[in-house]
Amino acid sequence: GLDFYIATVLHKYNLADIEYFCNTANFCPGDGLTIGFPYVNQLCGRCGTCKTNIVKGYAAGYERIIYVGDSYSDVCPAKTADLVFAKYILYDKCRKNGTACVPYENFRDVMDYLMENIPAGVVSPPSLPVIPSEARNLELADKVKISRRLSSSK
After folding, report:
1. Sign of torsion, CA 19 24 25 27?
2. Core vs surface per residue 89-111: b (16+ CB within 10 A) or e
3. How far apart are CA 87 and CA 132, in angstroms?
4. Measuring CA to CA, how many Å separate 2 from each of 40, 101, 154?
5. Weakest-pLDDT range from 16-20, 34-38, 126-130
6. Which of 3, 20, 29, 146 sits between 20 and 30 A of 48, alpha carbons compared?
7. Which residues, at least 6 apart from 146, have a Cβ–Cβ distance to it below 8 Å?
């Protein structure tokens, strides 16, 4: 993801204090745009943001790492987690490489699984705002427009 739309969505739903890791978009005069990769792993270079390093950085402070993902950039960090929720590409890759995972469709599935399978008191439901589906779709549409614009400028 890119910082400008992640920050906008978090701010819109009063979640601006949540820490996040992403690539940066630097808008230049005219229609120019450069993308920065502040969390890239120079030894690997497969992903713009190395989620594996981020997960490993937090692992020491937690008893268990639960990872939720859906894409190529989630394959490596899923291998380091204690419990993986996967869909789409990540689910297929986990099945191929032998990484145990729980399939999910949405975050309600994840919450239900945790509430049913993790002892009481270990996980409590967060009080997060409900994001209307039309807002999620609009944000996705905006990302697609930006992606198409970047692709067409190459």
Report:
1. positive
2. ebbebbeeeebebbebeeeeebe
3. 21
4. 13, 27, 19
5. 126-130
6. 29
7. 2, 5
From CA 63, how far away is CA 105, in angstroms rounded?
Answer: 26
Q: Are 26 and 36 in contact (CB under 8 A)?
A: yes
Tens of pLDDT, residue by residue over 111-144, are 999 999 887 655 544 443 444 444 444 444 444 4
Cα–Cα nearest to 21, from 56, 65, 62? 56
Q: What is the mean pLDDT of residues 146-151?
A: 41
Q: Considering only CA atoms, which of 106, 104, 110, 86 is closest in space to residue 96?
A: 86
Backbone angles phi, psi at 134, to 5 degrees: -65, -30
26 beta partners = 34
Per the CB < 8 A criterion, the answer to whether 38 and 23 are in contact is: yes
Residue 4 confidence (pLDDT) above 80: yes
Split at pLDDT 50, 70, 90, the class of 22 is very high
